[in-house]
Amino acid sequence: MIALTDIEMSFGDLAVLKSVSLRIAEGSVTALIGPSGSGKSTLLRCVNLLEIPQAGELVIGGDRVEFVPGKRPERDAILRVRRQTGMVFQNFQLFPHRTALGNVMESLVTVLKWPEGKARARSLELLDKVGLAHKADAWPAQLSGGQQQRVAIARALAPAPKVLLCDEPTSALDPELAVEVVEVIAQLAREGTTMLMATHDLRLTANIAHEVAFLDGGHILETGPARALFAAPVQERTRQFISTLL
Ligand code: ADP
Ligand code: MG
Fold first, then answer.
1. Which of 67, 102, 128, 198 is 20 to 30 Å from 222 by CA-CA measure?
2. Ligand 1 centroid distance, CA of 40 (Å)
3. CA distance 52 to 59
4. Interface confidence: ipTM more than 0.90
5. Is the overall model pTM greater than 0.90, yes or no?
């Protein structure tokens, strides 16, 4: 349902993604692991076209975008892809001047032009799903990090994206607060939410992810079912990296 093929992404002279291909099945959870600087965040940003690769192809839902050096895809194509993705960031990035409910409603009202009442009802449902219906009127600054991240997840899910992209969703949180975010992600996985997450959190990679992709120096060195890849990686380099996580 999501396919990246031969993606090349450079910043000036710095080649960050080198012929990256990745397939993500509907309803599956893929963990992207790899050392700092290996290109995990850049890869996530290429899926929602926050970065525009120089070469390769992205297929998401019914949309197919081809990347050609020096040519930006059409604005409509970019917007269609963005609407099919939701992004959760390491540092939550809630709108500080909106309540929890306001954060979740924002894209429904401003981008999708939903009537206020309908947007409110859906947003309350989503806050309930992440266990925060009682915090609907709280400001981000009044919420713990774990609560802020759960609001961020509800916000990302509001427009019913085809894939939820998470960039190190638990790494800014104390272990105890991370647990509540892990539980929400586990629940979404059980419900069949398609997710691609860059993370080193073993609760996410080893327990929740179905597939793992190991990115090293801008190359995907190895992909495979999470259990198999953790138990018996094929590449020595993968084994070495995984041993640093355990
Ligand atoms: P990771 O998330 O795996 O730590 P990133 O995708 O953030 O890796 O970064 C990969 C490489 O790309 C790093 O060398 C980083 O410095 C570089 N990079 C990322 N974003 C930019 C940017 N906007 N401009 C220039 N270089 C960037
Ligand atoms: Mg990163």
1. 67
2. 8
3. 14
4. yes
5. yes
